Every structure is written in C-alpha cells, then in structure tokens.
Amino acid sequence: MSSGCGSSDTSCPSHKQRRGRRRSRARRDPLDTDPRALSALGPFQTLPLEIFHMVLNYLSVKDISLLSMVSKAISQRLTQYISAPSGSRRLLLQDFHALELPGGMEGTSLLEHYKSLGLLLKRCTLLLPTRGNLWSVEMNPWCLHLQVSCFKLNGCTSPLHCLGLKCYGVLLQILTAGWDELECHRVFNFLWELSNLARKVQTVVSSKAGSARKLEVRIRLFCRRVLLNHWSQRSDAAFWLTRILKPWPIVSQARLLYIIFGPASSLDGYVVWQKMIERPTDETSLTGLAEAIKLLYGTEAREWTADDVISLVDELSVVPQEWLMENNARLLLLSGNNICFTFLASKAVNGRAVELARLTVYMVLVCEKDLYCMDWAVRMMQKVCKVFSTPWERNNFLKCLENAFAHMLMDMLQAVLAGRHDEEDSSFLNLFHLVNAQANFHKEILYMAMRSSSSS
C-alpha cells in the first residue's frame, strides 16, 4: 500500500510545505528570470529588491520620476516599489488638513507633491494601454481610493477644509494629460462607477432642493476639485463638464449645474438655493454659472449646440423656482455678448415681445447698478431689433419696452410710498437706480440718433 500525504513518509512533502513553496515562488522577482532585463538594471542588478527600495527612499519623487525613464526594467522595479507598503506610505502623503508637508520636504506643498507623483505614475505606465494605466492607478494593492480616505467622495469628515480631493485632481490631471478622448471617456466612466456618482447625482437632482445638503456639497467638491478645476485648456474643462452633464435630461442638467457652480455658503459650503429667488444678488454669486455657460457655448464644447445652451440657461432660471428677472439679466451680461444676444434673439423669434421688453429693461438696470457702459445696452437692443421680420414686430417691441419702463417705475414708486422702510428695504434705492438707468439709456439713444442724422 503506497503511502499518501498523511503518512509518516518524510519524502512526501506536506500541504504546508507545498504552500510555502508556492508563496516563495509568488514572491520571486520576475526580473530575476530574464537575463536581458537584469542587464538593463545596470549597477542596480546586484542589489536585492529590499535594498533597492531603501535607496529609493533617499530620492525625491521628481528624481524617481526621472529614473523611471532609464529603462523598462527600472520602470518595473519602480512600479513594485510604488505598490509595496513602504513605497505607498512614503508616496501617498495624507496630511491633507495642514498647509505644508511635514519636515524634510523643504516646505513643498501637498499639491506639488501630488503633481510630481502623477508624473511618476504617468512615466511608469507610459507604454501600457489605457486599461493598464487604470489598473496601475486604481486596482493595484495601493489603490488610492482604498488607501486614502480623503480621495473618496464621502471619505473625509471635513471636506471643505481638506486638500485631499484637490491632490487627487492634480494627480489625475497630470496622469491623463495628452490622452485622447476615448481614453478619457474610460477614465471618467471608471471614476463615475468607482464613486457610485450616478446614484448620488440621481438623488440630489430628483429630491427637493436642499433636502440632501451634505451630499450636494460633496458632489460639488468632487466634481470641481477632482474633475474640473485643474485644467488650463478650456477644451479639457469643457470635455469633463460635458461628461458630467450630458447623461442627464435638461431639467437635471440645470439642477446639477446649479449644485456645482451656484452660490454656496462660506461657512458650511451648503448650496444657497433661495438666493436667486428672494432678492437681487451680486456678480460673485453668478460668476461660476456664467463661466460654465460660456464654456459650454464656446467652440471647445463640440457636443453642445447653441439651442442646447440656450435651453439650459432658460431651465436654469427656474431652479429651484423662478428667479427674479434682475438676476436673469445679470447672468446674461456675465455670460458674454454672444450668449446674451442669442438668448434675446430666441425670444424675439418666438414672438415673446413682452418678456423680451421686461428682460431688456432689467439689463439696462443692471448696467446702471454694476457700472457697465449704457451704450452696450443700446447696441444690444439695436441688434435684437434687426431680428424682427417686419416693422410692426419691431415697433411693437419698442412700445412694450417703454411700457415696461413705465410699469416698473410705478411699481417701485408705490413700494416707496407705502412706507415699509427697514434695514432690509431697498425700494427707494431701486427707484433711484431705475430712474437713472432710464435717463442714461434714452440719452445714449439720442446720441446715436444725432450721430446718424449728422452723418447723413
């Protein structure tokens, strides 16, 4: 009877011995079996892997990045170092709640460190396909989302005062710079799925505004700090913003745009949903939205038509409820001449003369309040008048314009005469601005008329 593994025959290896041999084979450096790869290591081929890692600990991240370009064999050794616990502890600095790195880094900021780390990862994965790059960045044992909690959407307890998402954003920006759109699509889909953002965005765009305030803040910070803020080229920023918005219907796009770029509290970061509804706001509250609209309207955003952007602006003006007309007018002025004219012209073409007239009056008022040149408003009105197909339509618009001035003056005068004055009441100041706005607007029209008559 032959002896099995459970017998006392010492010539038969036990299960434990076989497992030990398998583990030792798994730990063997693959470069050790390839003489050509070993020769490519140069002087480092005589060093055990552990000693090589100790040498790397004395090099800066920039120096390691340069070393990665010496040979493919060196690059493989560096990838092993990055994946090793000692390497990941050294490279994945996590002091995200302090302005500067700990001593020994000569005051280099965390952001600069992660830029250098992104360049190192880029060079180590330069010859790999996109799928390989993504595996190197996310799916190895040193997976950033698993090891660094502040890189997660919900990982940090104090996201407003944390540099984690910014560091992750600059790392990804350096890593993916120069990739073609198909590869960047894969990166976006990977991040979107990894963070489960589709379900979280669905929650905030379908819920009552402000009912999920903390989730709104986290989505805002993740989208801006990881995906949008670090691109110097407008075409890159437009690409990533398009990826965020395009999967959703127009109503959800407007809601999501407001969450990402709308006004937020400086204290807790919560999105201020009532700011456009309750009272006229200032330019700073609308700058982010205006810049995003200009980005989508520009030639860099090839997937958006002018009608798409105008529809988005129209839908944005009722998020979460209908805005004050003055805030609509201020957003249009900040969005630039082309968007402003296209928006006004669309109302002219669709026969909405009364609404167009009221909006024009508010644009005149904003020009007066925010110290824009009033001749801009006159030239914009003149340009819009050319859109009307018949003289009757043009004259009807001009009549509606003067009626809008008269009705607004009467409404503001009644508010002043009603005597409801307190610290928050600005009715008299609004009346003062509107009277001056009307006077300056008509003065510019008279100047224009006199110049045209004298030239003829």
Automatic annotation (TrEMBL):
InterPro entries: ARM_FBXO47, F-box-like_dom_sf, F-box_dom, FBXO47. Residues 41-84 form the F-box domain. It comes from the Eukaryota. Transmembrane segments: none annotated. Residues 1-37 are annotated as: Disordered. Residues 1-14 have a biased composition (Polar residues). Residues 15-26 have a biased composition (Basic residues). This is FBX47 protein. It comes from Sakesphorus luctuosus.
